[in-house]
Amino acid sequence: MVLSVNIDHVATLRQARQDKEPDPVLAVTPVILGGADGITVHLREDRRHIHDRDILLLREIVTVPLNLEMSASEEMLGLALEFKPDMVTLVPEKRQELTTEGGLNVRQHRDRLAGAIRRLQEAGIPVSLFINPSLEDVDTSADMRCDMVEIHTGLYSNAKTPTESKGELRKVSDAVARAVSNGLIANAGHGLNYHNVVPIASIKPVSGLYIGHGIVSRALFTGLEEAVREMKKLIANAR
Ligand code: PXP
Question: In testing the pocket of ligand 1, which one of 7, 10, 100 has its CB within 8 Å of the most ligand atoms?
């Protein structure tokens, strides 16, 4: 199973001082040494963490697939066509949110998303849609002919009781199964950490996990390389 490490929060720390360090571009060396199979960055419209310059440099130096998370705005589509990441994950974006709060509203924004998917795919960029664990949303995503879906694990991660957690895990697992039966690659992410990743990593048809905050938080105490290695180990043992 692929682990793509989201390095946005290295840039968040840099932006706390609006200066040069820590540089998210330099973070990729320990992240890759720790065993990451991919690097993810979210270019937000307000540029609150990752900047355009980061992506240009990452594109030059990263030796594993680079996943660009972005909204389906005209500005971002233009930049993606210029940056040519290895894949794009389309996500909803609200200015006030602390992090991506939910999956895309694929039914409401169907035409816009379908147009964005087509433009990216025509440029040779595979597209993933970040969606809630809903069977209907999986089917709508498949109808739009995206390549992958990333099932939002936020509700599972935030569950307060074992019963709630079990219920949310089941929804993720059902959505993954539905995606795969629709011919899509199924990934998962958001809010995953060392304590809650194993049940999600145990869902056999999941191809990849997208994890940021948990790994970067642990890295403050262990270093990035060790933090990624530990996560990889947990995931591998769960398979
Ligand atoms: N997947 C998507 C689509 C996201 O937007 C994020 C957060 O940027 C993540 C995964 C990673 O979430 P976390 O930082 O909670 O691990």
Answer: 100
Of the chain, the end-to-end C-alpha distance in Å amounts to: 8
| Percent of the chain topping pLDDT 90 | 95
Identify the band that residue 95 occupies on the pLDDT scale cut at 50, 70 and 90.
low
Determine whether 195 is an active site residue.
no
Give residue 93's pLDDT. Answer: 79
**Domains in the chain: ranges and CATH:** 2-238 (3.20.20.70)
**42 among known catalytic residues:** yes
**Using an 8 Å Cβ cutoff, are 88 and 80 in contact?**
yes
For residue 212, pLDDT beyond 90: yes
The answer to whether 152 and 131 have CB atoms below 8 angstroms apart is yes
Which protein residue's CA is at the shortest distance from atom 6 of ligand 1? 190
Give the HSE-up count for residue 183: Cα atoms under 13 Å, Cβ half-sphere.
7
How many alpha carbons lie under 13 Å from residue 166 in its C-beta half-sphere? 3
